[in-house]
């Protein structure tokens, strides 16, 4: 199949005429359903001619790929044939016809280049002259309205169409746009309303940068004709305005003359004018933006200075509203404050709003413009609240909107945030639609940030003033009651407290040891009766609490009551009640959190001051008690300062040491021993600072050998002192030397091993007998004497009166404590429960006496053992539990007794820190012989001892004894 090149293609006057002729020729030649001719114009591939049906299948993608690759392509019913700067796209073409037409591709390319060259030569002079004319007309102007007006006039005159307008986009969305104010030329009546751009036109203008060519005769019935119906043009050209890749708006030129036409030259001319106008518009907008930024920055600086000029919140809010109305031209403005419930917003200050509006509006967080701004913490703007479905923030505004009586249309909500959270919102109102653009809203956000900072500073200043006033109240109350606790001082404290709590009436009631009210001081209040005070006392809780009218005193609308809890250091419990503070007011509003917190602080200050005297008295009694114990002790007790200077020595120390060392008070403890034992004392002294248990050493002072224990006595805010307790080891050393001598003699003769065992057994029995004797004497003699003495002192106390009776009562209390100490000492030496009730009750008593939580478990048939064996088992358990209390750091322990045939097995277990065999050996070498003593006692009784312990897993000691 051979095709002849049509001669009319080379003679086409324009590229579009060439495209139409080529489309008709190609459609007939290849017998296609439809043909499109694409050509590269202005760097874009555009359709210049169409013929036939089915062209909606094409979106230009296949044509672009074919042109880029320079090869024919086919997909489904579509096929493409590139030629030079153009592409033929077929719908349902005959492949043989396409192949035949491909032979004409070089001639088609030459013809297209010739047409384009003639078109350029013909239109270049006109376009250049028109663009130069527009440049001269603008003269470098940066006035945007002047630039837009000159562009419209130049385009209309250059094309001879008579009418033109320029509209800049105010809204650009997905596939749609709308212009703002429109600048016209040639229209009978100027119009300023926006012009909408639909999806199809938006795609051609904005996405592809094409000029839309409209002709009524050709485009009648299309969506474009419907959109231009109001303007009624015969022919129109619409060109895009773009700068730096961003759409600016449209240039529209039309003619009302019947039969008017627009050529390709006109299209190029409009496009060139649009490009030149876009540059001028972009420069003017940049200049206007920079000018606006400078003006906004200056205005914001002045606003910031004005807002920073006051630290009082009401004044700050007044200045804030004044500046907001002036800066943004609002008809009204209000500052909403978020209430403590976190859900409600009320107007704190406003300008331009009616009194009814301010009183009735209570906005909800999350509802309306203001509520949404607070919830989202971002600016919320309504251009026309009567049309936008944002609703009202309160019931009142919703009613006004529903009735069509809401007075404002444009509304902007700006959140006011502080470090403590959202304070509220600044809301601006306009009676007309919102006049602010995006730049204005950005300035408003900066202004809101400045306002937030000013509000934060004002609130911090007011909070600081409030704290100073509260601190002054606390200081005055503490100083007043610290100097004088008379009824007059108590009444003055009630007055200060009541005024500080913003109450009208108040009282302070103090309770006695029995819990009843003993003293009461009032302010602005008639002293209540005993029944009323008892009723108030029944309402006292663990902290401040508001009272309802039913529980308050008569006439009060609201009240609060605060307990005065005593200091446990004064001898009372942590919840010991000294009294209560009461305040009320005729109003019904309950006291807020701030008032409750202040009342707690005032009550704590009162309680601290009131309990000071009791604390001092208790300390004096404790000091006298400890001094009495120290004065009567047989051990040597000395107290020294941080440098070792002795500040106290008990009589035992004075009697023993002063004949050798001279006066002890003022002497240095570290220099008392002989030079040979001073290093040991120095090491123990240093251990006081590093070891919680203090230090221990054996020293020599003259002929005496003393065992000393040093421990730190720490006081808050002062250097610690050192308490030294010493015991004379001379007799013990003599005994130890005798035992060592006998032990050496026994070691020399292995045959006397049994004799040594027997001796130790007898020695232990003698020790137990001695303990029994001492215990019995303490219980039967000493304790009875003390009991008789206490009864005599009690009878004497009943005969005395006043201070002498109090002294007798103190002596009686001391005697009771001495009786209890003697009985406890007697029980520790030899518990009577072991002799009277047997082993198991004694072990149960022992478990109850241990510091570690201990339980007793028994298995097997219970039976009484031989007295000696029961005593051995008791002493073994006693020593084992003592070791648990001292070293195990356990939270619980257990004594398990198992009665088997012919033997008894006792296991002492704990969940403490445990130890290894190496640790046990090291402790034994360091002088801790508890475990060795247990093993020796078990051996003497003919039994076995098993030790099971690991670090972190606790310890288990198992004694197996015959019996």
Automatic annotation (TrEMBL):
Domain Histidine kinase: 875-963
Subcellular compartments: Cytoplasm
SUPFAM superfamilies: ATPase domain of HSP90 chaperone/DNA topoisomerase II/histidine kinase, GAF domain-like, PYP-like sensor domain (PAS domain)
Keyword Nucleotide-binding: yes
Reaction catalysis annotation: ATP + protein L-histidine = ADP + protein N-phospho-L-histidine
SMART domains in the cross-refs: GAF (SM00065), HATPase_c (SM00387), PAS (SM00091)
UniProt-listed Pfam families: GAF_2, HATPase_c, HisKA_3
InterPro entries per the UniProt record, alphabetical: GAF (IPR003018), GAF-like_dom_sf (IPR029016), HATPase_C_sf (IPR036890), HATPase_dom (IPR003594), His_kinase_dom (IPR005467), PAS (IPR000014), PAS-like_dom_sf (IPR035965), Sensor_HK_TwoCompSys (IPR050482)
Top-level EC class as recorded in UniProt: transferase
Gene3D superfamilies in the cross-refs: 1.20.5.1930, 3.30.450.40, Histidine kinase-like ATPase, C-terminal domain, PAS domain
Main localization (coarse): cytoplasm
Listed EC numbers: 2.7.13.3
Domain of life according to the entry: Bacteria
PROSITE patterns, per the entry: HIS_KIN (PS50109)
Keywords assigned by UniProt, alphabetized: 4Fe-4S, ATP-binding, Cytoplasm, Iron, Iron-sulfur, Kinase, Metal-binding, Nucleotide-binding, Phosphoprotein, Transferase, Two-component regulatory system
Cofactors named for this entry: [4Fe-4S] cluster
Function as written in the Swiss-Prot or TrEMBL entry: Member of the two-component regulatory system NreB/NreC involved in the control of dissimilatory nitrate/nitrite reduction in response to oxygen. NreB functions as a direct oxygen sensor histidine kinase which is autophosphorylated, in the absence of oxygen, probably at the conserved histidine residue, and transfers its phosphate group probably to a conserved aspartate residue of NreC. NreB/NreC activates the expression of the nitrate (narGHJI) and nitrite (nir) reductase operons, as well as the putative nitrate transporter gene narT.
PANTHER family noted in UniProt: NITRATE/NITRITE SENSOR PROTEIN NARX-RELATED (PTHR24421), NITRATE_NITRITE SENSOR PROTEIN NARQ (PTHR24421:SF10)
Protein name (record): Oxygen sensor histidine kinase NreB
Organism: Deinococcus carri
């Amino acid at each position: 199949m051979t095709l002849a090149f049509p001669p009319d293609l080379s003679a086409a006057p324009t590229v579009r005429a060439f495209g139409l002729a080529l489309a008709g020729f190609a459609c007939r030649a290849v017998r296609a359903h439809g043909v499109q001719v694409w050509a590269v114009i202005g760097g874009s591939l555009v359709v210049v001619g169409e013929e036939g049906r089915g062209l909606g299948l094409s979106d230009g993608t296949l044509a672009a790929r074919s042109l880029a690759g320079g090869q024919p392509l086919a997909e489904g019913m579509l096929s493409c044939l590139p030629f030079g700067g153009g592409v033929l796209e077929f719908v349902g073409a005959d492949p043989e016809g396409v192949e035949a037409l491909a032979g004409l591709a070089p001639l088609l390319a030459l013809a297209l280049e010739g047409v384009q060259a003639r078109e350029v030569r013909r239109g270049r002079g006109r376009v250049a002259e028109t663009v130069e004319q527009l440049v001269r007309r603008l003269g470098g102007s940066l006035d945007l309205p002047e630039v837009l007006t000159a562009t419209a006039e130049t385009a209309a005159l250059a094309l001879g169409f008579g009418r033109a307008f320029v509209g800049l986009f105010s809204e650009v969305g997905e596939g749609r746009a709308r212009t703002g104010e429109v600048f016209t030329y040639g229209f009978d009546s100027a119009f300023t309303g926006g012009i909408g751009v639909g999806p199809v036109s938006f795609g051609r203008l904005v996405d592809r940068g094409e000029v839309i060519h409209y002709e009524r005769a050709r485009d009648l019935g299309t969506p474009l004709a419907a959109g231009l119906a109001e303007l009624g043009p015969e022919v129109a050209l619409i060109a895009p305005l773009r700068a730096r890749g961003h759409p600016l708006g449209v240039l529209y030129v039309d003619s009302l003359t019947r039969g008017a036409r627009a050529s390709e030259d006109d299209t190029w001319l409009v496009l060139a004018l649009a490009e030149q106008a876009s540059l001028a518009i972009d420069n003017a907008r940049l200049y206007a933006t920079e000018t606006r930024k400078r003006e906004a920055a200056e205005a914001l600086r002045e606003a910031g200075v004005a807002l920073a000029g006051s630290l009082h919140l009401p004044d700050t809010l007044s200045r804030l509203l004044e500046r907001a109305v002036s800066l943004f031209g609002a008809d009204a403005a209000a500052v909403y404050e978020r209430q403590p419930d976190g859900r409600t917003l009320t107007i704190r200050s406003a300008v331009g709003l009616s009194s009814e509006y301010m009183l009735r509006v209570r906005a909800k967080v999350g509802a309306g413009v203001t509520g949404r701004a607070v919830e989202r913490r971002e600016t919320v703007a309504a251009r026309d609240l009567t049309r936008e479905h944002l609703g009202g923030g309160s019931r009142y505004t919703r009613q006004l909107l529903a009735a069509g009586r809401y007075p404002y249309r444009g509304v902007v909500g700006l959140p006011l945030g502080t470090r403590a959270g959202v304070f509220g919102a600044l809301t601006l109102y306009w009676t007309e639609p919102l006049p602010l653009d995006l730049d204005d809203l950005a300035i408003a956000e900066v202004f809101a940030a400045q306002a937030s900072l000013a509000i934060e500073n004002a609130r911090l200043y007011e909070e600081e003033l409030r704290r100073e006033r509260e601190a002054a109240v606390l200081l005055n109350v503490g100083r007043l009651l610290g100097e004088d606790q008379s009824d007059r001082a108590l009444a003055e404290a009630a007055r200060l407290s009541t005024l500080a709590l913003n109450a009208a009436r108040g009282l302070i009631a103090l309770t006695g040891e029995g819990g009843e009210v003993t003293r009461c001081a009032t302010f602005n209040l008639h002293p209540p009766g005993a029944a009323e005070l008892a009723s108030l006392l029944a309402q006292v809780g663990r902290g401040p609490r508001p009272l309802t009218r039913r529980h308050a005193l008569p006439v009060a609308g609201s009240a609060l009551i605060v307990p005065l809890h005593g200091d446990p250091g004064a001898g009372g419990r942590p919840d010991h009640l000294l009294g209560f503070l009461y305040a009320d007011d005729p109003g019904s509003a309950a006291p807020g959190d701030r008032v409750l917190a202040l009342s707690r602080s005032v009550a704590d200050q009162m309680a601290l001051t009131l309990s000071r005297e009791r604390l001092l008295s208790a300390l004096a009694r404790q000091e006298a008690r400890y001094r009495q114990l120290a004065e009567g002790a047989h051990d040597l007790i000395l107290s020294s300062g941080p440098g070792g200077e002795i500040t106290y020595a008990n009589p035992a120390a004075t009697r023993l040491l002063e004949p050798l060392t001279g006066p002890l008070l003022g002497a240095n403890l570290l220099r008392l021993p002989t030079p040979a034992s001073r290093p040991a004392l120095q090491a123990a002294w240093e251990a006081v600072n590093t070891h919680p248990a203090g230090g221990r050493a054996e020293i020599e002072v003259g002929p005496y050998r003393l065992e000393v224990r040093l421990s730190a006595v720490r006081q808050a805010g002062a250097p610690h002192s050192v308490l030294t307790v010493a015991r004379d080891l001379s007799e013990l050393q003599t005994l130890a030397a005798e035992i060592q001598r006998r032990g050496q003699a026994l070691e020399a003769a292995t045959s006397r091993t049994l004799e040594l065992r027997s001796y130790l057994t007898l020695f232990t029995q003698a020790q137990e007998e001695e303990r029994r004797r001492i215990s019995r004497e303490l219980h039967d003699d000493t304790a009875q004497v003390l009991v008789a003495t206490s009864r005599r002192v009690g009878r004497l106390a009943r005969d005395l009166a006043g201070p002498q009776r109090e002294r007798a009562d103190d002596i009686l209390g001391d005697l009771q404590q001495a009786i209890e100490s003697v009985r406890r000492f007697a029980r520790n030496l030899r518990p009577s429960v072991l002799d009277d009730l047997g082993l198991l009750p004694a072990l149960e008593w022992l478990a109850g006496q241990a510091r570690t939580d201990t339980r007793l478990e028994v298995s097997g048939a219970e039976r009484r053992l031989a007295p000696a064996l029961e005593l051995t088992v008791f002493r073994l358990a006693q020593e084992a539990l003592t070791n648990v209390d001292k070293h195990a750091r356990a939270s619980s322990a257990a004594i398990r007794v198992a009665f088997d045939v012919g033997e008894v097995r006792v296991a002492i277990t704990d969940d403490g820190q445990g130890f290894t065999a190496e640790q046990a050996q090291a402790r034994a070498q360091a002088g801790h012989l508890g475990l060795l003593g247990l093993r020796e006692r078990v051996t003497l009784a003919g039994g076995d001892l098993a030790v099971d312990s690991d670090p972190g897993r606790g310890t288990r000691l198992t004694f197996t004894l015959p019996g």
